[in-house]
Write a structure and sequence with these properties.
- The structure holds two protein chains of two kinds.
- By secondary structure, chain A is α+β, with helices and mostly antiparallel strands.
- In chain A, strands 2-1-3-4 form a four-stranded mixed β-sheet, with helices on one face.
- Chain B is of the alpha/beta class.
- In chain B, strands 4-3-2-5 form a four-stranded parallel β-sheet, with helices on both faces. In chain B, strands 9-8-11-10 form a four-stranded mixed β-sheet, with helices on one face.
- The chains are: A alpha+beta, B alpha/beta.
- Chains A and B meet through helix 2, helix 5 and strand 5 of A and strand 1, helix 5, helix 7, strand 4 and strand 8 of B.
């Protein structure tokens, strides 16, 4: 039972909506957070909570690209490949990652640490090239920086280079002069 | 020298400002809420926003007050406000900054807007990837509840507003307002046919307003400083106020820049953005997110208000400006955007679903020097058969990169196809298996 230990959270989610089915994405997101992907067991459980059939939950889940329906590595490296990042070097970054990790797109390293994907625009076009690893954004990437990020994650499970609250350019004044 | 006062970014750009409730209140935050709640009749608020000329900052630029006015006043049941924080338009990254740096500015806007339209419940639909922004918003909501700015009987006014964050899970189309509602109802995010419009049949078929983050963030300032003040900025009466423009691509200083809408692309790209990143000149720019047709260096002196950009043959859209330097292949740029649209098409309407895939295939073969002489005619025909033939505006958006690059840089397409023709003789023909 995936949601058993999260009963309070599940109840809190359900309380926000007048219609149960609205809790679909919050529950799918919670299941993925718990297990790293959305398992068939999770889908059956969510169906039970929402008074739906498992195919109804599965059908919805397949629409959303962030939901992994198969197990993936511990760290999901998702590099933005959209035009704005591609203009500032997303493609060489992807090539570097493929070589460095020794895997292709959509594949997972043998030690189950990293899964590499390319994704469409993540909303950081001013700070490209960039990638998202699990919950965190990493921006203005260079090969050196990415090397350090992978090393830190492999060794400590965390990396201080992740983005904090976004402000770009960093400093401004209340008044603009042209 | 012209000087402009920023509205939305003033606080967050001060080094000591953290976006906490104390910081926000310290700069006069939640004053507007206390001034209007239970005191100003909701209809007066709607009229005030109409008079300010505020238009939606998500892309369509629909007048906000008019949208609010569509909500039936005598509706007995619940009404809803949805804050569209699904920011996914390539080239756009302003809402993320507004949410992560000054969340209370948005929450105050939401509370006032809920009061104006008579909604007791608001959902902030945020794209699933924005984990940090969602966390910051949730923390701010908890702070606002504790301070009595949200919840039941706000500041003794008898008004109730409940706000919660609802995270998506990776689907560009959920930024389309009816797809957002479907997704919020726990379904696949496919746009609904309109009419009926969300104003009468929205979330759970109840009257609903969907407003962009930046739109709502402007509301407290309009209340505090008056509709006339807001309407005096920009290009009154049609395009008023400031916008947070997102600058990306081959410029020295990409980022979010708040400017009155009568500023020009030159102001943004060459003054604030510091100009081109290398010595290569400007070749092209996208003036309003991936859905907006490309423009050329001839258009840099165009003002960035909705009407001026439309006159120039594009759209101001979401305010995302992407700059490309000389040497960038326009066929490649169109292909990259088209791959985005192909990936994100929800699949509901045949012209968009099939057409986006065909366009990607044709552009890929042109880029691979395998283009055929009639490919440009086919591309044009496919685009014409998508535009205006889909349920939502996605269909019109996805053809913009192809149509506009074909318009201004047709020679680049033709050169690649000529190369393919020249290579034809040197390629081995694939033998065709005959069953006869």
């Amino acid at each position: 039972m995936i949601f058993h230990k999260h009963q309070a959270t599940v109840n809190d989610i359900l309380s926000r909506y007048p219609v149960k089915r609205s809790a679909m994405l919050p529950l799918l997101n919670l299941a993925q957070k718990e297990e790293g992907y959305v398992s068939q067991a999770a889908i059956r459980e969510i169906a039970g909570i929402l008074d739906l059939t498992p195919p109804q939950v599965f059908e919805t889940a397949t629409f959303y690209t962030m939901l992994n329906l198969k197990p993936i590595g511990k760290f999901h490296v998702q590099v933005c490949r959209s035009l704005m990042c591609a203009l500032v070097g997303a493609d060489p970054l992807v090539d570097w990652l493929r070589k460095h990790l020794g895997i292709g797109l959509g594949q997972t390293t043998e030690d189950k640490m990293f899964t590499l994907s390319t994704v469409e625009c993540l909303g950081s076009c001013g700070t490209g090239p960039m990638m998202q690893i699990n919950d965190d954004y990493y921006e203005r990437l260079t090969e050196d920086k990415v090397g350090r990020i992978l090393k830190d994650l492999r060794e400590t499970g965390d990396c201080s280079l992740k983005s904090g609250p976004f402000l770009v350019p960093e400093r401004g004044e209340g008044v603009v002069s042209l | 020298m012209k000087t402009f006062e920023k509205i939305l970014l003033t606080n967050m750009e001060r080094p000591e400002y953290t976006g906490s409730l104390a910081d926000y209140e310290g700069t006069g935050g939640y004053k507007a809420l206390k001034t209007v709640l239970g005191k100003t009749p909701p209809n007066d608020l709607i009229e005030m926003v109409k008079k300010s000329g505020l238009r939606g900052r998500g892309g369509a630029g629909f007048p906000t007050g008019v949208k609010w006015g569509f909500i039936p006043k005598d509706h007995p049941g619940p009404k809803y406000l949805c804050c569209n924080a699904d920011e996914s338009e390539p080239g756009t990254f302003k809402d993320r900054q507004l949410m992560e740096r000054d969340p209370h500015q948005i929450l105050e806007g939401i509370a006032i807007s809920c009061y104006a339209i008579g909604a007791q419940t608001a959902y902030i639909y945020i794209r699933g990837e924005f984990r940090l922004a969602a966390k910051i918003l949730e923390r701010a909501i908890a702070e606002a509840y504790r301070a009595g700015h949200l919840g039941a009987d706000i500041h003794g006014s008898g008004v109730t507003v409940n706000v919660s964050v609802h995270a998506g899970a990776g689907a560009y189309i959920c930024g389309e307002e009816t797809a957002l509602l479907e997704s919020l109802e726990g379904k696949r995010g496919k746009p609904r046919t309109k009419p009926p419009f969300p104003a009468t049949h929205g979330l759970y078929q109840k009257p609903t307003v969907v407003n962009n983050v930046e739109t709502l963030a402007n509301v407290p300032h309009i209340v505090n400083r008056g509709a006339d003040w807001f309407a005096s900025i920009g290009v009154p009466p049609k395009s008023t106020g400031t916008r947070v423009f997102c600058l990306s691509g081959h410029v020295k200083r990409p980022g979010n820049y708040e400017l009155p809408v009568n500023a020009t692309f030159r102001d943004l790209i060459f003054e604030l953005g510091g100009g081109m990143r290398s010595d290569k000149p400007l070749k092209a720019f996208i003036p309003g997110g991936a859905s907006a047709p490309f423009l050329t260096p001839d258009h840099v002196d165009v003002q960035m208000d909705f009407e001026s950009v439309a006159m120039a043959g594009s759209m101001s859209g979401s305010g995302g400006i992407t700059v490309m330097e000389e040497g960038t292949s326009m066929v490649w740029a169109a292909l990259r955007l088209m791959e985005f649209f192909y990936h994100e098409s929800c699949g509901k309407c045949t012209p968009c679903r099939e057409g986006s895939s065909w366009i990607v295939q044709i552009l890929q073969r042109i880029m691979n020097k395998q283009g055929r002489p009639d490919d440009l005619r086919t591309l044009t025909e496919i685009c014409e058969n998508i535009g205006g033939r889909t349920v939502c505006a996605f269909g019109d958006a996805e053809i913009a990169p192809v149509q506009s690059t074909l318009k201004y840089w047709r020679n680049e397409y033709e050169a690649l196809i000529e190369e393919a023709e020249a290579l034809k003789g040197s390629r081995k023909e694939i033998p065709v298996l005959s069953l006869a």
